[in-house]
Design goal:
Layout lengths: L3 E5 L3 H10 L9 E7 L2 E7 L1 H5 L8 H7 L4 E4 L2 H18 L3 E4 L4 E5 L10 H14 L5 E5 L2 H10 L4 E3 L5 H5 L11 H9 L5 H5 L3 H8 L2 H10 L15 E11 L2 H21 L2 E12 L4 E12 L2 H9 L11 E13 L18 H9 L5 E5 L9 E5 L18 E13 L6 E6 L2 E15 L12 E9 L4 E7 L12 E6 L2
Parallel strand pairs: 2-4, 7-8
Antiparallel strand pairs: 1-6, 1-7, 2-3, 5-6, 9-12, 10-11, 10-12, 13-14, 15-16, 15-20, 16-17, 17-18, 18-19, 19-20
Helix pairs in contact: 12-13
């Protein structure tokens, strides 16, 4: 089922101005953007400081100046705001989904069907998206729902950063929203309010015939779009930089082998276009236009630039079984949404083996099946949980190695788990320990390995120590356990025992 994310930027204009002006605009002074029409001047955007002082969108500029003495006023630049929004749309297109479009002058809309699992689910997707935008200096609110209309309304009318509406719960989520949520013209909203209609639920309960006679078809159409009764396709953003090829069909197709045949042809055309520009694709999107005016899409990501037709075809054709042709497919569109320069590399001799095997084809196949691949790399830290970090599966060798001589478990827990232990203090290993409700008798042990806290990170680690032991139970299973503290001084730790990993 389609799922739509709407992103709202309530302060896009002022944040763009501050970002470009830098220190020229004092951060502690309120900022407003002034629009003009003839001799009239009014506030078209205001930052949070200005809004707290009582200024409002639409207020006359002269009144705003009278209310706030040190007000910063900048002329509106709609073209620059639109360009900034388009750049954000291209960024989201490459990062999140093949279907991204600009939504008015202050937002984006994204079709995330089939993409949320790559980010850990919808809640993590939208929260991560909002956090990334905050890192770019932008205030944003995001909402996920079944329809564009519902997501658009919730992102703008709810004063929370993220909203996730469960599947098939749109009616419950929007029924009490004001009618401005329906994206109707201002005169229509005012006319409905004169009739005493203030909420979406009240409007939905009205008979359609008199509503259409007075206001035309628009209120009914917006209601149907919000509730998902009629489709509202999202036309994805396109720029000249995106390499695109397409195939229209006089007779709709639907058989998997027929789809695969034309996908391979499109991949060949796309590869030729990329070769002309010296580029390789890093991300390709296949759009499937069905005869019922609905659309599906497949995305293929690559670890490095590629224009090998066989490799690109395999990534797309492996997922053809996920396509639902419905009553038939009338058009296929293949777009390279992310491309990078690619230089051809000459092989010195086929008789000489390559220094290292290229694993990127395997990484691409597994990654496009939804697996999140990574490698672990060492970090200069004595504390075990800090001594490792994740890097990309195809990242180059960082040239570092773990400096420890003691054995480390094959599986290190992210958070050590508490265990109950019988042991002699201060230096003896456990004789018996209980973990996850099971009692284990220790038959062999090695240790202790003492690890000190990193006092330069935080004061409470100044005296902290851990004594680690490698222990083996009667079944031959080996564990990595530690005691918090030196076994004598209570200031060095709680003297509680924990299991931190298991050996394979």
């Amino acid at each position: 089922m389609p799922r739509v994310v709407s992103i709202y930027f309530p302060q896009l204009a002022t944040e763009r101005i501050r970002r470009h002006a830098g220190e020229a605009l004092p951060a502690n002074k309120p900022l407003v953007v002034i629009a003009r029409r003839g001799s009239k001047r009014w506030i078209s955007a205001a930052d949070a400081t200005a809004l707290k002082l009582g200024l409002r969108i639409g207020m006359a500029a002269s009144k705003a100046q009278a209310m706030v003495a040190d007000l910063l006023m900048v002329d509106a630049a709609p073209a620059e705001d639109a360009a900034a929004l388009e750049r954000l749309a291209l960024w989201a297109l490459r990062q999140y989904s093949p279907v991204v479009a600009v939504d008015g002058a202050d937002g984006l809309v994204i079709d995330t069907e089939g993409a949320d699992h790559l980010h850990g689910g919808e809640a993590l997707l939208v929260s991560g998206l909002v956090n990334m935008l905050r890192g770019r200096g932008l205030t944003a609110r995001a909402a996920v729902a079944d329809t564009w209309g519902a997501a658009h309304a919730l992102a703008r009318l709810l004063a929370v950063e993220t909203t996730v509406v469960p599947v098939d719960n749109v009616t419950k989520a929007v029924i009490d929203l004001p009618i401005v949520a329906l994206r109707l013209p201002a005169e229509t909203v005012q006319g409905l309010r004169v009739l005493g209609i203030d909420t979406v639920g009240q409007l939905s309960a009205m008979p359609r015939a008199p509503l259409m006679l007075r206001f035309g078809p628009e209120p009914g159409r917006r209601l149907d779009q919000m509730f998902g009764r009629i489709a509202e396709p999202i036309e994805p953003i396109r720029t000249p930089e995106l390499v695109e090829v397409a195939k229209n069909f006089a007779e709709p197709i639907g058989a998997p082998e027929t789809i695969a045949k034309y996908v391979r042809r499109l991949v060949g055309q796309l590869s030729n276009r990329l070769a002309e520009d010296g580029l390789g694709a890093r991300r390709c999107d296949l759009f499937i236009h069905r005869v019922d005016n609905t659309r599906q899409h497949l995305r293929a990501g690559l670890a490095k630039p590629v224009r090998d037709p066989a490799r690109l075809s395999k990534l797309l054709c492996d997922r053809i079984e996920t396509i639902d042709p419905g009553f038939g497919i009338e058009k296929l569109v293949l777009v390279a949404v992310f491309a990078e320069p690619l230089e051809e590399r000459q092989v010195a001799s086929f008789l000489i083996e390559e220094e290292g095997a290229d694993i990127t084809p395997l990484v691409d196949i597994l990654g496009n099946r939804g697996h999140r691949l990574f490698r672990v790399a060492p970090v200069a830290s004595d504390v075990p949980e800090r001594s490792v970090r994740r890097i990309a599966a195809t990242a180059p060798d960082i040239g570092e190695a773990w400096a420890v001589k003691w054995p480390r478990p094959t599986r290190l827990f992210a958070n050590p788990e508490r265990i109950e232990v019988i042991a002699l203090l201060p230096d003896q290993p456990p004789a018996v320990f209980t973990w996850r409700g099971k009692r284990r008798k220790v038959v062999r042990a090695d240790g202790p390995e003492r690890i000190f806290g990193e006092w330069w990170r935080r004061p409470r680690e100044f005296q902290a120590v851990r004594d680690y032991f490698v222990v083996e139970d009667e079944l031959g299973e080996r564990y990595w356990v530690y005691r918090a503290g030196d076994g004598i001084d209570p200031e060095t730790g709680s003297h509680l025992w924990f299991i931190h990993g298991v050996f394979g």
